[in-house]
Each structure stands twice: as structure tokens, then as C-alpha cells.
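Late entry, written up from scratch paper. The run itself happened at the end of the previous shift, but nothing got recorded in the book at the time, so transcribing now.
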Amino acid sequence: MASLSTLGLMQKTKKKWNRYRGELLFLLSLLTFILVLGWVNLNFNPDTIKIAIAVPQSNTEKAFLSLGQEMIDGTQFYIDKVNKEGGIKGKKLELLVYDDQFKPNIAGKVAQDICASSALGILGHYTGAMSLKAGEVYQKCEIPAITGSGTVDSVTDNNPWYFRTIFTNSDQARFIAHYVQSVFKSKNVYLVTGDDPYSKSLGEDLETYFIAFGEKLNFIGVQELNDDLNRTVDSIMFNLLKLKKAGQEPDLVVIAMESLEAAKLVRKMRRNGLNSSIVGGDAIGDVSFIQNFADATEEQSTPGFFTDDIHAVVPAILDISGERGEEFKNEFELRYGYTPGWLSVFYHDSAHVLVEAIKNAIIANENSSQKTFNLKDIATMRRQVRDALTKINSPEKAVEGITRTFYFNDQRNTQPLVLMGVFNQDKFISALTQLTFIKDDTIIDNLEEELEQGDLIQIGSDSYLEKTHIVYTGIDINEVTHIDEKTSSFLLDFYLWFRYKGDIEPDDIEFTNYSVERLDSGEKLTLDEPIKRDRHDGVNHVVYRVKADFYEKFDFHHYPFDDQILSIRFRHQTLGQEKLIYVVDFVGMRDINTEEVIKNFKNNNVFDKVTDWHITNALFFQDTHINQSTLGDRRLIKAKSQFQYSRFNVEIEIERDIFRFGLKNLLPLWFFVVIAYGLLFLPFENISVEAISGLLLAVVFYHLSLLDSLPEGIGYVVALDYAFYLIYILLVIELILVILGSSTWLKANTNITNKQLLQFGRVTLPILWIVGSYSLFFIYR
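Output as recorded:
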């Protein structure tokens, strides 16, 4: 029986299928057509502006894959931001990702694919070797390319279609050589290079500088890797151990090679007990370099075993990048789950430069009668974008990046910014001494004296490098005990510490936002005796405890839906930014991520005494504080410059607890509103003009009493005012209804009854109240 039933069911199903087969096939075909049409529209939509990026994504080492992902994430981060803001003239941006596998021959093939695409420009490649190979193709097919990482000088030489946002190998070689000679002051320096274009050009430039230093630097040898990597590394180790046995172990090994080769050498050196200091180029100056040692037992038991104290040159370090860099770091970490390195920063900024050129090209054509910028004419568009890039050629036309501004010279390179970083506990942070490039010697005080003391290094006929002290600075907030809205001041209790080298006095500081009452009186906050002072491995460490009132001008436009900033800001009293820079102590503070800071504040009850506020964000960053006065210094007048100081900032964003505020301050207001509405349910003859007028006056006085907690003389309307204005309108409407109901003229000339007036008020007033309240909440929240 069961089988017969099943058979019958199958026959019925077959009949239904035969009956509706045509309709189902039609629907399936229609659905397929819609999907295909959507895919075509997504990939060939002429209103989508496409940008290509070439990165290593497969068939290479894990560390290189991480570098490729950093490049993609930094670029996509910027593109998404532009798209969120409406794109370019309403046209969305799309990133096309190409895998060059970290191989020059593959890069050349990928370049041909990019040329055949509808991309207007290309970002990449990671290294000079791949950029050189691909650059030949880009020049032939005429597509503009920007590298944010390829430092080989020849990448942009004789190629009018390739641009560069990072420094060149000659720039970083000059910097490393002078840093080694003037900061490390090593007795024995050994140079190791590779055989790829990046390593060769960097190594040759370094060797030239080291030889030129003569007696100022004891350059004891150079050795080059070849294709047989393991054998060559063993050979280098043999020579280094031989030198050690002879009592000539190098104080410093300078590595000019790609990160993978450098990692193999570092692993051998540390395991063989060679503790020479190590300095390298930008190829090893990224946190991803640490991944080369993740599988080593030494690294797992002692993080930083291989990399601690390795120095490397980079174009950007986030601890020295200011508020914009700190905000980028926090947003990037929240989105991607890891801390961005300089690659993410520079490909974000390279994308910014390329997008700005595309935007400028579109605007130029909109202002032109020819209207030649046509999204279907890829070749013409690429030429116009390339021309727009060449016009970003001066400080006035520069593109503002996260850490610096970008504009191109005649060789399509940007002005070099070179920084020295160091690995410390699996973090890459600013080295304690930087060399700042100074071209205008008119702003240098006591030129001859600074040259003699070694604080200033001459690198050309009129160019100098000045030693800049980096001071690792940290703040731990213990308690926020009082927030005075009337004076925009707040009482903070916190620990403050400095870690630094040399005989400078980083604690000779001026708090630029010490409480307003003290600012008006001219009184300054001075630090008491330190609660701790020590010195370890040449690094000074001093700790203070501070408890004082601080000031930050509060903005009450959205009161009581407002957010405010509590801040601590200070700078050195006498030393300018060229001498001293305060940077966030990423290692010492531990909790720099916004989420961790907020969690730490809650665990330590930092805001327990300030119950009306919630903390929503926290930033620690350094920026530049400018003294607008020249103070009569003729050097600054002549150079049209200003005194610039490094300023350390802590900004804690707090949000008012609107529920608690309403419960504490607005209950009488709700009481007045309920009474006013309740009057509409009384017999009309029991409602008097005097009663409503009395309520209106009560609301006015209560309004004024609430505003009394705000600073005197604020010249703008706050959100709370609009809430009261809404209540005034409602009460006035009710008052008008009562007056109309008492009017003999209304009764004599219309058919409107008092009952109808009351009914109108009972319906209209709640509707106005709900709509008005929702509008206020939507606008200000």
C-alpha cells in the first residue's frame, strides 16, 4: 500500500511539473538574466571608477602575504571612506586586486592584465624589482602608477608614468650612514647586502658613504648574498664568528636586503650568540618582520628574542604621527583586527594622491569646453590622470596624508621623510634619537657650535641633519573627581612618566590647558619631585604624580545630548620640535587601543565619582603646537617661520547620561506638561487663562534655572532651549484655545463648540509633542 501511495504521489508531481515546466523555466531564465545583468553592471558599470593594486597574494612566504594584505587594507580603507562620502562627483570607486606573487616575471604579466583592464591608475608594486619590470609595461600602455614602497631610485628614472610617495634608496642610505656614524658611533661596522635590485642599490650607496667617512667610521667589510641563500648566510656567519674570535666582533651589522633574507641572517646571528646591534632598511621596518620568527621556540618563550633592539629606517611611525595617525590606527584596528604598519599608512596615502588626481582631472574637464573626460575612453582618461599627478608639484598643491603632505618633484618623487624605528617587545616604535632634515640654515641657532658638538650634521653645501630627542611619554589616569560645566574645567589625578636618552630635561614642561582660572591669573602648574627615577641601559626613566584642574572649552550646542572632551596637553617650555618630540609610550602604556583604555578605566573606577557621564573614546597622541609670535627672533622673520613645539595630548571623550539627566533635572518639566494636558479633560468652564499663564511662567523660570548651570554668556541656542520652545508652543496653543472658547464673537459667528476646541487640543497637542520630541532626538542624537 505504501509503495502504491508513493507511486501515485510521484505521478501527480510529474503531471504538475509538466504543466508548469514552461513557467518555471521562464522564471529560472529570468532570474539568471537578472544575475548576469547585475554582474555585468557591477564589473562594467561606466559610472564606477576603477583603481588597480598589485600585491603578493600567493606562492610566497607568509610574511610577504601579510605585507600584501597590509597594502590592500590600507588602500581599501581610503576607498571605502571616499565611497561613503559619495565617491568622486557621484561616481563610486572600485579596487581591482592583482596578485604578482612577489616575483618580477609574474609582475610583468600582471602589468599586462592591468593595462587591459578599465583601471585609471595602479598602486604598487611592493619592491623595486617588481616595479621596474612592471614599469616597462605601464610606460608602453600609458597608465599612471604610484608605488608607496618601491625605493629603488631607477623605478621613476626615465619613466614618466611612474610616481613614488616613499623615499628612495639613496635617501635612506644617506640617512642610515649618517645615523650610524653620528648616533651609534660604532667602532666596527659590517655591511651585508643581497643581489636583488633593492639590496644592490641600497648596499652600494651605503658602502660608498661608509668608505667616504674614512677614520670617522671603522668599516671592516662587506659581503653579498647570492642565489644560494643558505650557503651564503653560513658564509657570512663564518666570517662574523671569525671576526669575533679575533676580538673584532662588529659593534654594528648593517643589513641591506629583503626581509626574508634578513630574517634568516638574524636567526643565525642570535642563535650563535652574536649580539651585534643591527640596522636595516625599510624592508625590515614593519611588524610583519616578526612573523618570520613566530615558529621559533626562542621567540615563543621570550617575545622579541630575535628582533628586540633591531633598528630600521621607515617613512612613517604611528607613535609620532599626531592625532590623525592615532585616529587612523584606532579605526584600522577596529576594522581589520591588527595594528597597521607603515605600509598600510603609505598605501592609504598613495590611494589618496591617486584619487585626488582623478578628481582634479574630472574637475578640469568640467571647466573645459571640450568635456573630454569620458569614462568609456580609458586611454584618454589615463593620460589626463597622469597630467593631474604631475601638477601636484608644490606645497600649495600638496595632498594631506596621515603623517605628512605629498607633492612630486621633476623626477616624480616626493620630498623624503626618513625616520628611524626600533623593535621593542614585538612592537615597532620610534628610536630615541631621530635625525631631522633641515635645508634652511638661517633658522639654526649657533650653527658652528652645534656642528662642533655633533648636534648638527652637515650633509651638503647647505643641508643639515639635526639630532632630535624622542621622549617616550605615558599617562595613566587614576581618577576624574569633578567636572565643572560652568567653567569648562575638570579635576584629574594621573601618573606621568618619561623615558629618554641624553642630558635633556623633558620634564621642564608647560601644561597648555591648565585650568582657566589659573590661565587668567598667569599661574603655571609645575611638577613636584618625581616619585621614581632610574636609569637602565642608558635610558632614563622618571615618573610623577599630578593632581590638578584642567580646562577644555566645552561645546553645549547639543546640551543635554552633548559629548565633551577632557584633555591633558603639555609641551616643553624652551625646546622646539626640532630638538625634542614627545611620543606615545606604546610599550610602557600597554593599553593604547580605545577599547582597552575604556575597559581599564572601568576596572579602575576612574569615573566612579562622575556619575552623569559615560566615556566613549580615548586618544593619546603628539602634535605640533605653534607659537604665532616670532618673539623678535630675526632668524624666524627672515625664514618666515614660527616656533614649533612638540605637544603631548590626551583626549578623553565623554557622553552625558541622558537618562540620568532627565531623571534628575526634567521631572518637574514632565509634571508641568502632564498638568497642562490634563486641564484639557476638565469642563471648559473650569479652565482659566490664569492657570495656563501660570504654568507658562513656571516653565519659563524652570528653563532659566536649568540654563544657569551653563557658562555665562554663551552666544548660541542649545538643544534644551528647543525642547522648551516646543513646550512654549504647546502652552500657547492651549492658551489660544481657552481664549477662543471664552470669546463671545466665536460663539456668535461660528458653529465651533467648546467641546470641539477641547477635542482639538487633546488630539493636536500630543501629536505635536511626539513629532517635536522625535525630531529633537533624531537631530541631536
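Confidence is low (pLDDT under 50) at residues 1-7, 39-45, 634-640.
(Scratch paper discarded after transcription.)
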